[in-house]
Amino acid sequence: MKGLIQDQPLLISSLISYAGLYHGEVEIVSRTVEGPIHRYGYREVQRRSRQVAEALLSLGVKPGDRIATLAWNGFRHLELYFGISGLGAVLHTINPRLFPEQIVYIANHAEDIYLFLDLTFVPQVESIAQELKSVKGFVVMTDEEHMPRTSLPRVMCYESLIGEQKGEYAWPKFDEQTASSLCYTSGTTGNPKGVLYSHRSTVLHSYCVCSVDGLGLSGSDTVMPIVPMFHANAWGNPYGAAMCGAKMVFPGEKMDGQSIFELLDQEKVTLTLAVPTVWLMLLQYLRETGRKLPFLKRVVIGGSAPPKSMIRTFEEEYGVQVYHGWGMTEMSPLGTVGNLKLKHQGLPYEERMNIKSKQGRAIYGVDLKIVDAQGNELARDGKAFGPLLVRGPWIASGYFKGEGGGIIDDEGWFDTGDVATLDPDGYMQITDRAKDVIKSGGEWISSIDLENDVMGHPGVAEAAVIGVPHPKWDERPLLLVVRNEGVEISKEELLDYLRKRVAKWQVPDDVVFVDELPHTATGKLLKSKLREDYKNFKLP
Ligand code: ADP
């Protein structure tokens, strides 16, 4: 027997319709590439997203067509989020930090037919425009006054293009399983692969963004997603903010400590989200200037493991609650969020801290399990560790155009490539990326744990631990360290520091001081490069 409830498709356009109707005056504040701060309300976002849709239709765009963006977090990018998906086309957010040949590969693979770009990226796109086979036109996201002189062919100005439209477009209804947006994983090995989200997955994921034990976004928040809109849709925040009518602040291209602080302070941001490298810059700025964060209530840190010292600094020195989250592009991206349970409220701070520094707790909508090498499920005891598998209604079932073959098993489980423990309450702790684990004499050493410990040393700005080949033990850990400016620390001092914190056999065999460490386009340590660079390193 079927239930007698209306069958309303879950469509992205419904999010902006809601926000436009009930939160029309709530502000979207953007630091523009042109310079000034721009502000307007959801009512205008809704009208201008409709203009975007009308403009695209007038250019001949059809449902299913891929439309690319190379853009920072800003109001025009937001309009494209709703305008493109709203008409049934696919928003393809490209990460501008990728190498030019990767961008060419991605745009050709996706068969993007229009490319919208911020002023910043005009020179970058000029140099590859001839290689973008399917692109019929380039739209520079600015007004006539700021249109650059450019060699880009078939170029248009965003404001002129949408300015001609009425903004009365009626969002169409279609199947909620329709593709809505496309995001390629950075592909540290092999070619990037496309994750194709649907309207349904995006709306369901938005409920999680707005649920209290999810990201807890609400209509009384001012949220600043610093995580880029080209990195797993800014972790779903643009959609979630529309769902609850939160005020939104976009930092544009300026992500240095001072610029971020100014927006946090001036706009009274209550919730902000970014990867650890961004927080390192902000915390350094705060330390140097003595500024405080009186309005900020919550910080979400994800994308890679934050050092414990970072969580502490936010909480103890600035009174800001830290939520450690974990996810992947393939997971829309929310997988776990580090909220505490009722039973934890009375615990001593140190114990709460230990729970908080784990990658987070299972949320409704994401099934998690860990398995052994044979695929047998391991105990949820917080001790056993193995490959982490996930499944759920906002998790990829395959990559765009079948790239990489089947990615889920018969029961729908997707292997995240992470190795983790799970405890009975659902808290998950990543031991390592499967490919970064250091295999020493049959034992596994967690590079993440070592990095976390080293980062607790005040002289260390950033650290990476990799396995290098060893004749007797297969692999031994090598520690690479970027020192804080003006600080002298010796190899022995660091190793001593670690000897007090980890088992003897886990202490790295050597330390190398470097000026900087390589990162991926989404800000993670690029360990594949480090392993390559140090593969012939002679351990003492
Ligand atoms: P990419 O950067 O390659 O596009 P994602 O952003 O999807 O990919 O990265 C997902 C991976 O990032 C996860 O599988 C995990 O290894 C790592 N990651 C994400 N959040 C955390 C975290 N809080 N702690 C440790 N690792 C994390």
What is the structure about, briefly put?
Helix content is 29%, strand content 24%. The protein has 540 residues and is α/β, with parallel strands linked by helices. Among the domains are: 12-202 and 224-252, Rossmann fold, CATH 3.40.50.12780; 437-533, 2-Layer Sandwich (GMP Synthetase, Chain A, domain 3).
Describe the structure.
This protein is an alpha/beta fold and about 550 residues long. Among the domains are: about 10-200 and about 225-250, 3-Layer(aba) Sandwich (Rossmann fold); about 435-535, GMP Synthetase, Chain A, domain 3 (2-Layer Sandwich), CATH 3.30.300.30. Helices cover about 30% and strands about 25% of the residues. It has 16 helices and 25 strands. The strands form four sheets. The protein has a 13-stranded mixed sheet. It has a seven-stranded mixed sheet with strand order 7-6-5-3-4-8-9, sandwiched between helices. Helix 10 (about 255-265) crosses helix 11 (about 275-290). It starts with 11 loop residues before the first helix and ends in a 7-residue tail after the last helix. The site of adenosine-5'-diphosphate has 21 residues, from strand 14, strand 19 and strand 20.
